[in-house]
Design a protein that fits this description.
Length: about 325
């Protein structure tokens, strides 16, 4: 991003304003996210236009849209900010107790709530001044680009084949079970047979990745098992609420199911299919590999995953439950 006038340097503040303006396409939303006034952001936009020599944002019928020049510069601006952050935050003696670091973690919403709550509890206790932003992944989210450009520090997921272009480690493994309403006919039997599973109606999540299917779908496909997918949901967290007083089955992980089983009138039953363990990984980019603050964050996540793996989980419900 070349400077047109020597008296208008492109500092980190303007870089951050530029990235948010192009992403949010709104002066007011940018002002809100940066805790600035709208006149201040408007003034910054005028400076950016003068420095870059481009309108950057233009008004159209649906609102403000970035110009082709702005879109082409966005990746460079994010990369520059990421490098600056690495320079500023690369101190050898990282002290979480006083650090004001801002961490960004991306994960699908089927990550066990008990794991997320453990991470937040540890963060508040050990790094009370730090900020944690949790980003929900969906099929349109390019997490590899976000890691490379510094938008995310860590991505958590359960890919059958994790991306080989990133660093990764295993966080935890979880068993696959079935979650049903407390008054579901199969609760009395205490189990679900394969015929029961094939004849039942299912709640299924929409895929969060366009490139890979989940462990459950991959396993069922390999066994040539086709579920009757009656209800599809965008969010995993919605699915348990839809089970109440229905004959639907939701296939998910044990820790996820156990959380909602204790919250709602639901029961957890063993799956009739021998699914592999659901393995959750954390991924990070080479740019964060040696950062003391990011190493601390990854260690915290690893320890929370290990602690969760060691905790006893309520067994699947039986006839006498």
């Amino acid at each position: 991003m070349a400077t047109r006038r020597s008296d208008n340097p492109l500092d980190t503040y303007l870089l951050r304003v530029f990235c948010l303006l192009v992403t949010e396409r709104s002066v007011s939303r940018t002002a809100f996210k940066m805790n600035q006034s709208q006149p201040a952001i408007s003034a910054a936009l005028r400076r950016l236009r003068d420095i870059i020599g481009d309108p950057l944002l233009v008004r159209e019928k649906g609102g403000m849209v970035p110009t082709e020049r702005a879109v082409s510069l966005l990746a460079h601006a994010k990369s520059a900010l990421a490098e600056i952050d690495c320079m500023v935050n690369s101190e050898e003696n990282f002290d979480p107790l006083v650090s004001r670091s801002e961490f960004n973690i991306g994960s699908p919403d089927y990550l066990a709530p008990v794991f997320v709550s453990a991470v937040v509890e540890r963060l508040r206790r050990e790094a009370p001044e730090a900020v944690l932003n949790l980003h929900s992944l969906d099929s349109s989210f390019d997490f590899e680009r976000s890691l490379a450009e510094g938008e995310l520090d860590v991505v958590i997921g359960n890919w059958p084949e994790p991306p080989d272009r990133m660093h990764l480690s295993v966080l935890l493994e979880d068993e696959i079970v079935c979650l049903v309403a407390a008054n579901h006919p199969l609760v009395r039997a205490g189990k679900i047979t394969l015929d029961d599973y094939l004849n039942a109606r299912h709640v299924v999540p929409m895929p969060y990745s366009l490139n890979q299917r989940g462990v459950i779908d991959v396993t069922l496909s390999a066994l040539r098992i086709r579920r009757q997918e009656t209800v599809s949901v965008q969010s995993f967290a919605v699915a348990p609420y839809l089970l109440q007083n229905t004959d639907l089955i939701f296939t998910t992980t044990r820790h996820f199911a156990a959380f909602y089983k204790d919250l709602l009138p639901l029961r957890m039953l063993p799956a009739p299919v021998e699914f592999p363990m659901m393995r959750f990984y954390q991924l990070w980019h080479e740019r964060n590999r040696h950062s003391p603050s990011h190493r601390w964050l990854r260690r915290l996540l690893t320890e929370c995953g290990a602690a969760l793996s060691m905790q006893p989980v309520s067994p699947a419900d039986s006839h006498n439950a």
